[in-house]
Known about the structure:
Helices cover 44% and strands 16% of the residues of chain A. Chain A is α/β, with parallel strands linked by helices.
Amino acid sequence: xxxxxxxxxxxxxxxxxxxxxxxxxxxxxxxxxxxxxxxxxxxxxxxxxxxxxxxxxxxxxxxxxxxxxxxxxxxxxxxxxxxxxxxxxxxxxxxxxxxxxxxxxxxxxxxxxxxxxxxxxxxxxxxxxxxxxxxxxxxxxxxxxxxxxxxxxxxxxxxxxxxxxxxxxxxxxxxxxxxxxxxxxxxxxxxxxxxxxxxxxxxxxxxxxxxxxxxxxxxxxxxxxxxxxxxxxxxxxxxxxxxxxxxxxxxxxxxxxxxxxxxxxxxxxxxxxxxxxxxxxxxxxxxxxxxxxxxxxxxxxxxxxxxxxxxxxxxxxxxxxxxxxxxxxxxxxxxxxxxxxxxxxxxxxxxxxxxxxxxxxxxxxxxxxxxxxxxxxx
Amino acid sequence: xxxxxxxxxxxxxxxxxxxxxxxxxxxxxxxxxxxxxxxxxxxxxxxxxxxxxxxxxxxxxxxxxxxxxxxxxxxxxxxxxxxxxxxxxxxxxxxxxxxxxxxxxxxxxxxxxxxxxxxxxxxxxxxxxxxxxxxxxxxxxxxxxxxxxxxxxxxxxxxxxxxxxxxxxxxxxxxxxxxxxxxxxxxxxxxxxxxxxxxxxxxxxxxxxxxxxxxxxxxxxxxxxxxxxxxxxxxxxxxxxxxxxxxxxxxxxxxxxxxxxxxxxxxxxxxxxxxxxxxxxxxxxxxxxxxxxxxxxxxxxxxxxxxxxxxxxxxxxxxxxxxxxxxxxxxxxxxxxxxxxxxxxxxxxxxxxxxxxxxxxxxxxxxxxxxxxxxxxx
Lengths: 378, 378
């Protein structure tokens, strides 16, 4: 049986990237290492759609989120938290650890926080320093209107911080044009890499707040990364083999073109939704994003058991719901190094498992609908 | 030309470990992933010589040091900093970021902080909460008497935190038997891995202080790692491909046996010192450790230029001094996946370069002395 990874992080990694990781380790302070970091930084600026430097942190995405919080908020300062799921709650966890005064704009799982809700919160809290938001709420499949957020936040003195961990590279996200002040992402999602690196970029407006905020971390102090990156270097021993491998995946992204990449994800996501619905299944997210498709487990079906069978019998590794959502939803990633044929196979496997379990569906309807929608897309 | 890495981190990585990194990425919340983390944790306990759990953090060694500081010190609490070089100064940087009240026990580069000095500082500062120390001061080649530190700190209420980043696995270090309360290390030194992971373990005495200390980080909060590790899991997406690779290197360490590993490093280090001195060169560290050999650049020799020639002409990558020490010393690592024959080659290359540059030495004396000392060792 052939194992296939469809979890919304980690995602499949191209062979040329994996092979980079198998090469002998080299010194991280050489001119060659600096040149590699320079290339990676330029390619990340392209992916982020920003003219600002993008810093490479050796940590998980959550470490990147902590950098966003610890560098911009003094203890007790007010933060607006837009939360629509588990990853909004991750922001809350970090904010609590840093003693922020949290004003939450909260919606139930499956729904999206709208720019109007955020605008109202900003009006009610003119002393809010930073808004924390989630581009792709991977726990529910919701995508947020960051362009809309950017417009309402730009009218205020607050900063807009974005967890783009499973969104950047999978869905349209234009840091500079949309007025996003802080964008964080991780290597193991749409950037086609194993986990271990996080990336963060800050607007000029954000730097002003950083410079006025007391130091609250050493390892995640963005001032240190800024100073080092000016010499194409890192302040601490970086995960340099990961950086070399990231370069390979970024070259692939650059060759495809960021707008083509977004279009590919949109086209696959739309086809996937059509396929899912043709199988008689319902989507979970009211505003689905293109990084993943999240399906409601139908009444009477064992959600977690179905995923176990999918993996055991056909090798397809989907993701279950997290925490209270376990068994309630199925999550299928189509991020990064995943194409239409991969996703078609994943739907085929789900059709087979559901049909074998006695769930009523027309075998073939799902894959045909996927194919039809994909062919009609562009 | 054949490139050979002798920097004191990163160090060479065994082929079987590198090949793990080239395997397809898998999901980090599977039972297989948990079993791997369980194995790695057990092997790390063996390497640390502790019965306490060892936590795997996805970050550089400095991130591990920050975990030691942020989890044990409230702002303004007193810390005794033992500093004998750049890595002692790294502790100082982290301590400053966390607003510690720092009492420094400082010696010039090349010298060691003795247990007596520490004892005096503890007597003068009975309110000190934590002592921060360095097992292998890689910037100078000094090794510290952690067994001696352990004895004096055990008599007090203070904790003993050890930066073991380039020491653990290269020189004797017994966390439990020596009374070390916090030990931190990184993957890219004697543990034969690329950079990207840090490891930390805490004694019961340390946990009591942690539980009484306000939360100052989310990503590096050791309570979260403790809770997750009880289920053989990690709180945040870990560098799971690195963890799999670390398992391979730990198996190698386990097969060799930790005491054999220490003995191997000691034997190579002693032979290396003999070789260096037979070349008419002087050692820099007054209390040299077995992780690396640090040599004073002789009068009239271009220190940095010699290293450039070594690399360009013979492929040997040694490390220069850092910051103010640049050009003053040469640093040769013999940590991890490096054996006597590797180090013999490195000395041979240095002899050739020095001789070619007109430095007066008897060609062959260095390698012969190395060989003789190595043969006499055990």
